[in-house]
C-alpha cells in the first residue's frame, strides 16, 4: 500500500477497527516498497521479518502500534544491517538497538527498513552513498537532498508514513524541503543519540520526517527523553507534542533574518517563502525583519567543527573489530591505512583530512578554536533574538532540489547549500522545515521554523497552522501521478 | 597555497593514503576549503569563550553497576577475522624489528 493519503490517526483507526491487521499493513508496505524502489532507491535494507513481528501486535493501545516506520541507516538495528551507506560497514549488523529504535518498539511500532543516506551522513544529496543516489519523487532527475535523502524519498513517495532521520547541519530539514514534506530536528539533547553512528557529536541530533505535522508529533513523543546511555540527553520533562498543534498564531512574534534572503538564495525561493510568512502576518502574527550578523561565517565554522569531530569519531573504523578489512596486507599499520583508504569514499576522506588539519599542532588555534569561538557568536545572535521573538523563520535551503551530478565536482558549491540550516545545530535549537509551496520549476520550497531550546511546541503550533492553511499534503509528487 | 606534500602529511596523520592522481584532485579542493576557513580570521574573537557543547547538565553521574549486555560471541560477530574466540590481526612486529 501507498501512504500518500494516510495519517497515523487514520491507520490507527483502521487497525483498531480491524479493517486491516498489523501483519497485512507490514506486508502491503513491503510489497509497495519493492514495487517502487527501483525508481526511487530509498532503501538500503528491508525488514523481511516485519510481517511476522507485526503479527504479534494485536492490541493497539498506543498511537504507533503496528505502524511501519523507516529508520535512517546510520541508526543501529539488530534485525537489519546498518551500513551508514559506506563500504566500511557494508555488512555490519549491530548487536544492540539504538535507544530510539528500542523506544519505537516499546510503542509497538514496526521497523520496516533502513533508508539511504550520504555516506556517514556527510553530504547534501545522497550522492556520496556507496549504494547510489536516491531519486526525488517530484523529479527523478533531481536529488532528494541529504543526508537523510532516502528517508525523505520514502515519505514523499508514500512508501512509509514516517521515517527517522538525523541532522548535523541540515540533514533532516534540507531533504524535507526538497521533497515537500515536514521534517523536524529537535533541540540538541531532546533525543538520545545512543546507537546513532557518530558524525559530529556536538551537532548530531535524531529527528522525524513525515508528510503530516501531527504524525511527526506522535513519533517525536515516542523517541524523546533522557537516556542513561547518552549523558548529553536532557533530563527535562517531555511534553505531549500532539497537544501543541493549536494553529494559533495571533500575537506570535516572528523574526525574519534579512541575511536568509541574501546569500545565494534564489528569487523563487524568496517569493514562495515570503508569501508563506505573509500568511502568518495576515492571521495576526507580528513579523519583523532582524539581523543574524554572523550568518556569512556559518559554513566555514560548521565545516571546521563538524569535520574535526568527524576525524576523531571515524578513527574507530580501523578494520580490526568490525566492518571492512582490506585484504593483502602485511602489517598492522597497513591494515589501518589500506582499510580506511579503500573503505571510505572521497567526501568522507575530505572531511577526515580537513578535521585532522584543523586539529593539528600549529593550526588548532587558527582553525578549530577560532571556529568554536565563532560558534559562540552565532549562538549569541540567536539568544538575542529569542529575548524578543517566539520564532525565527526563513527559507530552509537557498534553492529547490538540484540535478543529480550538478554539484558533484565541486565540494564548495555543495557546502554552500547548507548555509541556512547549519546555525540551528550550532546553537542547539530545534528547527523544522514545512512545505511553503511550489516554485515555478514545480519543485517544493521549504519554510524553516526555528525556536528556543526545548520549545518544539512553538514549532508544532506554527507548523500546524500553515499545514492547515496550505494543505500541501494533498499535492501529489509529479513522479507519482498516473501517466 | 597548500602543497601536495602537506596534503600527503595530513593524509598520513589520518591513516589514509592517496595515489598521485588522487593527490592532484584533493590538493586544490582542500586548498579551497582551507581558504574558506581562513575567512574566520577577519572576525575579532578576543575574549570570546569557545563553545564546544550546548547542554544543560554539567556532570552526569550514574551508579557503577555491572550490567550484562552482550556475550563474547555476539561481540565477535562483526570481527573480520577471528581465531579461537579472539580477534586475529596481521603481525604487529615487522620481521626486521624481530632481528634487531
The CATH homologous superfamily of chain A is termed: Amidase signature (AS) domain
Q: How many strand segments of chain A?
A: 11
**Order of strands, widest sheet of chain A:** 1-3-2-4-6-5-10-11-9-7-8
Overall geometry of chain B:
flat
EC number (chain A): 6.3.5.7
InterPro entries (chain A): Amidase, Amidase_CS, Amidase_dom, AS_sf, GatA
Domain Amidase (chain A): 25-459
Pfam family, one (chain A): Amidase
Brief digest:
By secondary structure, chain A is α/β, with parallel strands linked by helices.
Which structural traits does this protein have?
heterodimer; A: 483 residues; alpha/beta; Amidase signature (AS) enzymes; 15 helices; globular; B: 100 residues; 39% helix; ligase (chain B); ATP-binding (chain B); protein biosynthesis (chain B)
Task: Tell me what the structure shows.
The complex is a heterodimer of chains A (483) and B (100). With 483 residues, chain A is of the alpha/beta class. Chain A has one domain: Amidase signature (AS) domain (Amidase signature (AS) enzymes, Alpha-Beta Complex), CATH 3.90.1300. Chain A has helices at residues 8-16, 22-40, 50-55, 99-106, 149-156, 173-179, 213-223, 267-282, 298-313, 332-343, 346-359, 365-388, 411-416, 422-427, 456-470; strands at 43-46, 68-71, 110-115, 162-167, 182-185, 205-210, 253-257, 286-290, 391-395, 431-438, 444-451. Chain A has an eleven-stranded mixed beta sheet, with helices on both faces. In chain A, helix 5 (149-156) runs parallel beside helix 6, helix 9 crosses helix 11 and helix 9 packs across helix 12. The longest helix of chain A has 24 residues, at 365-388. Chain A is globular, with a radius of gyration of 21 Å. In chain A, 63% of the residues are buried. The mean pLDDT of chain A is 96. Chain B has 100 residues and is mainly alpha-helical. Chain B has a domain at 4-41. In chain B, strands 1-2 form a two-stranded antiparallel ribbon. In chain B, strand 1 (82-83) and strand 2 (86-87) form a beta hairpin. Classes of the chains: A alpha/beta (483), B mainly alpha (100). At the A-B interface, helix 9, helix 10, helix 11, helix 12 and helix 13 of A face helix 1 and helix 2 of B.
Amino acid at each position: 500500500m501507498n501512504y500518500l493519503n494516510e495519517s497515523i490517526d487514520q491507520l490507527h483507526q483502521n487497525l483498531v477497527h480491524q479493517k486491516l491487521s498489523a501483519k497485512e499493513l507490514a506486508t502491503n508496505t513491503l510489497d509497495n516498497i519493492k514495487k517502487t524502489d527501483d525508481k526511487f532507491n530509498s532503501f538500503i535494507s528491508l525488514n523481511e521479518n516485519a510481517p511476522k513481528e507485526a503479527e504479534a501486535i494485536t492490541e493497539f493501545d498506543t498511537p504507533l502500534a503496528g505502524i511501519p516506520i523507516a529508520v535512517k541507516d546510520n541508526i543501529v538495528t539488530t534485525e537489519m544491517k546498518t551500513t551508514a551507506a559506506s563500504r566500511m560497514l557494508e555488512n555490519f549488523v549491530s548487536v544492540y538497538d539504538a535507544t530510539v529504535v528500542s523506544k519505537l518498539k516499546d510503542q509497538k511500532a514496526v521497523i520496516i527498513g533502513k533508508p539511504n543516506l550520504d555516506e556517514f551522513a556527510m553530504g547534501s544529496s545522497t550522492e556520496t552513498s556507496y549504494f547510489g543516489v536516491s531519486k526525488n519523487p517530484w523529479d527523478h532527475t533531481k536529488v532528494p537532498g541529504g543526508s537523510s535523502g532516502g528517508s525523505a524519498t520514502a515519505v514523499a513517495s508514500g512508501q512509509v508514513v514516517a521515517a527517522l532521520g538525523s541532522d548535523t547541519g541540515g540533514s533532516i530539514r534540507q531533504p524535507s524541503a526538497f521533497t515537500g514534506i515536514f521534517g523536524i530536528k529537535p533541540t540538541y539533547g531532546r533525543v538520545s543519540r545512543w546507537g546513532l553512528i557518530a558524525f559530529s557529536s556536538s551537532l548530531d541530533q535524531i529527528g522525524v520526517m513525515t508528510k503530516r505535522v501531527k504524525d511527526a508529533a506522535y513519533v517525536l513523543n515516542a523517541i524523546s527523553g533522557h537516556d542513561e546511555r547518552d549523558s548529553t540527553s536532557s533530563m527535562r520533562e517531555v511534553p505531549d507534542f500532539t497537544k501543541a498543534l493549536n494553529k494559533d498564531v495571533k500575537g506570535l512574534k516572528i523574526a525574519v533574518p534579512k541575511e536568509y534572503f541574501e546569500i545565494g538564495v534564489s528569487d523563487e525561493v524568496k517569493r514562495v517563502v515570503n508569501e508563506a510568512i505573509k500568511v502568518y502576518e495576515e492571521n495576526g502574527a507580528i513579523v519583523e525583519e532582524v539581523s543574524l550578523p554572523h550568518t556569512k561565517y556559518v559554513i566555514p565554522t560548521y565545516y571546521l567543527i563538524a569535520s574535526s569531530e568527524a576525524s576523531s569519531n571515524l578513527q574507530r573504523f580501523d578494520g580490526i573489530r568490525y566492518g571492512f578489512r582490506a585484504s593483502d596486507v602485511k602489517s598492522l599499520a597497513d591494515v589501518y591505512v589500506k582499510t580506511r583508504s579503500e573503505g571510505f569514499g572521497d567526501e568522507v576522506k575530505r572531511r577526515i583530512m580537513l578535521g585532522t588539519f584543523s586539529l593539528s599542532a600549529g593550526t588548532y588555534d587558527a582553525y578549530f578554536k577560532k571556529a568554536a569561538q565563532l560558534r559562540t557568536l552565532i549562538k549569541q545572535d540567536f539568544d538575542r533574538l529569542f529575548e524578543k521573538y517566539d520564532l525565527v523563520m526563513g527559507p530552509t535551503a537557498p534553492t529547490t532540489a538540484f540535478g543529480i551530478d550538478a554539484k558533484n565536482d565541486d565540494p564548495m558549491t555543495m557546502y554552500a547549500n547548507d548555509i541556512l540550516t547549519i546555525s540551528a545545530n550550532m546553537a542547539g535549537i530545534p528547527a523544522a522545515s514545512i512545505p511553503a509551496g511550489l516554485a515555478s520549476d514545480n519543485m517544493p520550497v521549504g519554510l524553516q521554523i526555528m525556536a528556543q531550546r526545548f520549545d518544539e511546541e512553538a514549532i508544532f503550533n506554527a507548523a500546524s497552522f500553515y499545514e492547515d492553511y496550505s494543505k500541501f499534503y494533498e499535492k501529489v509528487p509529479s513522479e507519482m501521478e498516473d501517466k | 597555497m597548500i602543497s601536495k606534500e602537506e596534503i600527503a602529511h595530513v593524509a598520513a596523520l589520518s591513516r589514509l593514503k592517496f595515489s598521485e592522481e588522487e593527490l592532484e584532485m584533493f590538493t586544490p579542493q582542500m586548498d579551497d576549503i582551507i581558504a574558506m576557513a581562513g575567512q574566520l580570521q577577519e572576525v575579532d574573537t578576543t575574549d570570546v569563550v569557545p563553545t564546544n557543547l550546548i547542554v544543560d547538565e554539567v556532570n552526569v553521574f550514574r551508579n557503577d553497576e555491572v550490567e550484562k549486555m552482550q556475550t563474547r560471541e555476539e561481540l565477535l560477530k562483526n570481527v573480520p577475522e577471528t581465531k579461537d574466540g579472539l580477534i586475529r590481526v596481521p603481525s604487529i612486529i615487522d620481521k626486521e624489528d624481530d632481528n634487531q
